[in-house]
Fold each of these.
Amino acid sequence: MIRKEWFLITLFLLSCTNLYSFSIPKESLEQLSNDRYWKILLHIKNSTSEIDDPSFFLTSKENFSAKNELNATISSLAENNDSIYCRYPARVEWLKSKLPQLFKDKNESSCRKLEETLQKEKPNYVTLVFPTAYINSPASMFGHTFLRIDSDLRTPLIGEAINYAAKTDETNGFVYTYKGLFGGYKGYYSALEYYEKIKEYSAMEQRDMWEYRLNLTPKEIRKMLYHLYELKGIYNDYYFFTKNCSYNLLWLLQSARESEDLTRGFKYKAIPIDTVKRVNEAGLIEDVYYRPSKRKEMKAIVKRLKNPEIIKNFTKTYNLSLLSDLNQTSSADALDLAILRLKHQRSKNKLSKKRYIKNLMKLLKIRSKLPKTKPPKIKTPQNPLLGHDSSRILFGISSANEFNIELRPAFHDMYDNESGFIQGAYIDFFSFKIFRSRFQSFDFVNVTSLSARDSFFKPLSWSAKISLQRVHAKDIYMNFAAGVGLSYDFYGMLFYMLLSPGVNIGKNTLFDISPSVGFVKNFDEVKFGFRYMSRYFTDGVSEHTTELFMTFDASESVAINLKLQDDKIGGDSTTRAVCALFYYF
Amino acid sequence: MRKILLTALALTTIVTTAQAERNLNTGCGLGSMIIENQNTVAKQFVAAFTNGISGNQTFGITTGTLGCDKPELFVQNEKVEKFVADNMDNLATDIAAGQGETLDTLATLLNVKNKEAFEAKLKDNFDSIYATEDVTSAEVIDAIITVAG
């Protein structure tokens, strides 16, 4: 039925085409339909459009081509079809510059509603915002990106956040993952106040946010918003790895500045930070601003306390007599911490709204009687733009003349320099390893989240892994493992212990339990680490690995990894030194 | 292969990360904030994994002043009304501390010339601005205008 209608509409439009086409030479139409900007507006890559929603087009799916769509758009204009101005403001603007004769006799040739909004909102600046990983969930460690539109740089909070996300009310987790990975959901562009985004990321999820202000001009921003308006309510199939939130923003930026080919590549993965790097390479980034999470703010206040124990006690009991010996500034810090903690607890639904408001008002009233304090000093971490690229090849040679090779499409593991990444958040996908000159493992996914516990936040560390791997240096098994543990930060050194049970399916089924302990310490360009791991199998054999490693950056895309490794399998023990080269791309 | 991978994912979710579905707890008074629901472990992992997928965003979502009273003293300014209504807790916190981005933003929106004096004045009058626990955003705006003169 729908198809039939579309067919009729197309037929109608094609017939209209003939009405006007004598006034526009065929060649120029052909040429125009190959115009770069026209293809950007249609999201055309390799001659097909990436937009999946048929209602975005005037032509039917079967008849779609850049040329037919252009024909249909021009026909619609020639028909004096006024609704087209609000439906395709970006197309109309573009046609105005290319075919001014089309608009000669028209009184009005723009979308009034949209023009009024733009007049009122004055979109002068665009910022690309990158919230980093969710602290204890490296599964979200790829991060996310969205755009923020501001009229005034002094009030970023009320800026408009332009977000691309898949829409779902799915409650079944597995359906959710499956559909999320393989295009089962529809992604839409949406807009929301920036302060709502901050509440979501900075306050609730404790994610740092990086704000990259772009050098787009108000004129370019207008073009982008025209295009965004066309995409209102239009969906694309959402793919977690490729056609995701970050990738789809590139189309918007491209509609602002057509000279840059921002969407090129990204065939197998579009990791948010990689898209930010692309935008940076295109010279669009003008300024960087770091917005620390509430957790960082709390840590910074704790750091300057003279009586941390008393104050920590106060934030839990609200016992004012605890503050009687403190000076006014310390008392103010105590109140600020207690308020931050209270809000965090509420966001985690750990107390009722009624009790929360009661406590909040009580604390705020006391706080208002204490003096204004200096904002806590929060060290800006390394800009994620300067972190290593997400794909890595490793070539290594051991003291016993064996070679190691690893191929890792994404993303970041324990041996990589952590500058620009979240400490302790490791995630690898589809990592292929040759170890001691033969196949060792293929990890479908390997996630480790080492999240340090402190006086306010008590996260669990955890790990999850699915891989094909060699067991007892003999046979290949399919391994599923998941573990939990604890991590602590000690002078910037991250100590951890994990206990991970697993099941191995191969020529027989083996269970194993694997305790591990270790630490990592990252300096600017050098990283050290130690790890001890045992695996006790149900066949009575145990494996033990002890390793000490160091990685240092040799250049932007090359690092050297040195490792001293001892492996014990059953009774056999081997010790080797391994020197490896990491190449990032 | 996909099936294996996904079944495997299902097996490896013995993990307690917390994320997932959120409800937008909105209103005109204090205590309107995004609350996280503690959900099943598996779902949390999965939700974290499929970061960027969300169920509650539409184009131009407005949670703001809908259904809230309008301030009486203040010349109608939708931007200010919405901002205060949506940021009640953060604004109260900033006023009590005498500083902060939410308070700065409000001062800019109100075209305040001497920001420091404005912020100090509000801090001194915290008790009168937030007289009761169920104070509404409209009352807060009116009180701020009265205090700031």
Amino acid sequence: MHACHIYRITEFNYSFTTEAGIEYECSFKSYEEYFRNYPAIASKVFALDLYLINSKQKPSPGTDKRIADTVITIVGDFLNSMVNVVVYVCDTSDGRSRSRARKFKSWFKYYEHPSRQIIQLSTDMEGGGITLYTALLVHKKNKLKIQFINAYVELTDVEQK
Amino acid sequence: MATAANKSKTVIRKKRNAKAVPLTKAEMVQKMLADQKLIREARQNGISFEELEKTYGFKFARLPHISNH
């Protein structure tokens, strides 16, 4: 693993800087409100928010590969409790959500990598004419993984209104 | 002197009610994106997580120390 140096960890977020000097921040927001039909697991679902803090600089297309390792390290640590799960919703604001989804998906497909402890389930969620690219990340040893997966599939089901 | 009612008008978005109404799929998608954008922009403007929790009713995970860096 060649993770970026995570220079700051606060109660709420991780921060790191790429080789190009771009600063990212990562936090986990509760998604309990979307899983109210599943009271046993609702409080354990969190959305991963990953965003540029120093937004004056734009990342180059040949992105720093260490970003992937850094995010895997952060998410892996968060999931290591084997209690919580993470939902990732690709940002659609710049019209690059599809490529972002593809990239994110590849990060958790590494072979012989710490991410092998993480199950990834990716699916699209549609509503109001918008397609969201989403992924559920759950630790393989999470005892409630089947409940999380079922709830996530139901949440993202296109047939559901 | 500003009244409580006037003060509340300055809040861009009201804190969520404790009893939430179930959202439709379309509302859910829009809300997920809107919240994501709000948090990103707020953080880029230096607004603290505590402030985001207090003002908008978000709840953020308290993080463990990272083990392998």
Amino acid sequence: MAQLSYDEKIFVDLTGRNDWSSSLPYGNNSFFYPSVSTSFLVSDLFTLPSAVSFAKLRFSWAQVGNDTRPYQTDKYYDRVYSNSFTNSSTLYNPDLKPEITSSYEAGIDVRLFNNRIGIDMSVYDNKSRNQILAIPLDPVSGYSNALVNAGLINSKGIEVMLTGKPVKTKNVEWSTTLTWSRNRSYVRELAEGITNQIIYSHESNVSIEARVGGRMGDLYGRGFQRSPEGKIIYSSVGLPAPLNPVTKKWGNAFADWKAGLMNEFTIRSFRISILFDGQKGGSLYSQTNHKSNTLGKTTVTLPGRDDGIIGDGVVAGADGKYSANTIKVPASSYYDNYYTISNAETNIFDASYVKLREARVEFNLPQKLLKGIGITQSSVALYGRELFNFTDFPGFDPEGGNLNSGTLIPGVELMQFPSTRNIGVNLTLKF
Amino acid sequence: MATLKKTYTTFLVLCLAWISCTKDFKELNTDPNRPKEITPGVMLGQLQYRIVNNSVQAGRNFTHELMQVDAPRGSAGGAGLHRYIVNPGAAVWSSFYTYMTDIEDIYAISDRLKENNYKAIALVYRCWAYAILTDLYGDIPYSQATKATEGSFQAAFDKQKDIYIQLLKDLDAANTLFDDTKALTYGGDLVYNANALTGGKNLGIQKWKKFANSLKLRLLLRISRRNGEVNVHEQINAILNDPAKYPVFAANADEAIFKYTGTFPYFNPYYNARTLDWREGTYFTEFFVNKMNADNDPRRAVWMTTVNVNGANVYQGIRSGYPTSVEYAVGKNSSYADALKTLPQLGVMMTFAEVEFIKAELALKDFATGKTAKQHYENGITASMVQWGAAMPAGYLQQTGVAYNANADAEQQLEKIMLQKYYAYFFVDYQSWFEKRRTGYPVLPRGAGIPAENKFPSRVPYPTYLQSLNPANLEAAKASMGGDDSNIKVWWEK
């Protein structure tokens, strides 16, 4: 480990670290990971226009190694009850390797007009080699889970933060911060000879898969059978035919981009802050949608409620030709079928949203009033969190996911509670 | 200089500390709470218990609905086995393959320990389970399955014919391995209690041997249409002609039933089932109940609840395959009797009754079973009554509808046998469906709500996850089978 600096203008940090992990197999348990990070104070190195109050460039390359939880590298038997044992359903891995993530990052930090405007931007490219993943296995192999090294996952992204102080007077101050980020994780390689891995599956209804050439978070599942013209195929009793057994990709669990906007106003003794954030894109399987629509709890299921519904689709004739479906069925049957739990097509939605995440109004009591009673500062604030949610997502909350043995899985929402709106009053007294 | 030296020394000491430390890592990374090695005795019992629970539940959840034993009281979405719609993978695929790891392990450990009786028991379980799997799906992973520890995660599928040939060989091997002069050294057998000797003989192992051969008869009859490709008749005759070498079930005491003790942990899998799940969501069908009513079948009292109609307690069923608009009210028709939830003998794998019905069919087809088809048929019915603890009323076997007419044409006689076999298959995994596919019996009425294009299913489509995890082998299997839908006929049904 070393820190070097040149004239307080160029800084170079070097680290080297070796871990010996007891949770990895004996031959694979030592791993070294170095890092180099540099920063250049451009505003000190060169003479820049006076508008630029500060400029810094940074470049870094770093590796981070990781091991796993203990007892994963040998075969053990699990106790079923009293003196009865079975093979563990999780495959042990005597060849487990440490996971090493190598990342390049470049960034720029510029502040203009006496720090009134700031731009901080960074781009990165991470390569996770041998990422240790707990994944479902084909039970035909004799085990239903395994801890594996996942080949090569490549994440690229960009993060931007703009800060500004449009107004700054004695009594009024307005500062604003805009953040924006975008990340893409691609599956470059998986374990040898493997092209697809299931990361998570919700029974046989929907799964999140890593396929070589695809992205992390791709959602797969079944949908309607369709005619060559793309119409939904119906059975002869007027309901959509059984789902197409061939699974396909319906979206990706991760957002195209995320952004946040924070505004803060200080007007004399008042301080007001408002935070919006949101995301564009990202798909989410919604079990809430399945459940509420099959039970007829939503307005989506109003058409046909009184006198039945003729589904929009075609029926295959004996000659193999398709003709329009003409059979009217009760709405309850129709929606029960249309939104069945295993239909990924009708239960996966775009999860774009904008939320008024937080708003806060604070009033600082005048010092004069407080002096006499020994209080140095006092403020009273009204705040609210998760105030409004602007989205077309039909479930309660587009920020859905589910907990699967301690890991939060995005992309599959299993009837979670909506996030709760908090409204409160905050009183601060400092003595 | 002195300072520098000191630093180096410290550094060296640190290195040494590390080296000595990493030596202990192996021990440190050894789980103190779980064993690395076990005996077959501590694995066998839990396997027997869990695998039979699985097959019993498959019997109720899958076969009973498809075979019109029961039907849901409502199914508005248009799906359902009773409308001949089979979801991909909707059967014991995952669970059976997972249990296979224990079965293979028992085999491997007892092979090392030279414990032939455990080895043979493992073979019987493997054959019983693989036969069910291949009858469900057709071609399945077999020779390449359960090889994760060897680094193989994408198993090729074997052809059903090849699987059957090997299963028959394995059952022969088991028959030879069973040694009734030796107890199971490490105990653990909960089906036949072959853990100790009685008067120098292991009576439990004798029953295991009978199970192996009875199972072999089941398999041979299943593939009997393929006689010629496999020497089915020859193998059947070998069993029938040499009962000393190939003993089969000869009494109810022999049958392969896991008897639930009702004490922890061996409860009947339904012992704490909610009433809602147990008997308020599905009801027996008219088809199933009406025949039993006509015969005054005493098994009704064991299996079914009664309902009060016009002041009389009667057994009454609902339709199967009804239109989506139909919904039956709760509690107005007969459903599963609560006593079944704690019945010890619900854990059926293979029964004496089945063997008698197999022999009845063989006798009908002129095999030398030693008795007439009529005698085996009557024995089969009687055995089923005994198995369920139902007292057969006098004259039951002689009444119209039950009485066997040995002068009827062979097809009618077969239908008669198969109908009674169907009732004897109550809760026995998928067997009544397999037998319906093989023989066409019993003839089931077709409900008005079944779309005209839906055919009675011949198999279960493969689980969808295979498209992700084993796509190349799945495609090869589909090509070999001629498709993957539920209308594709498996090798023995073709």
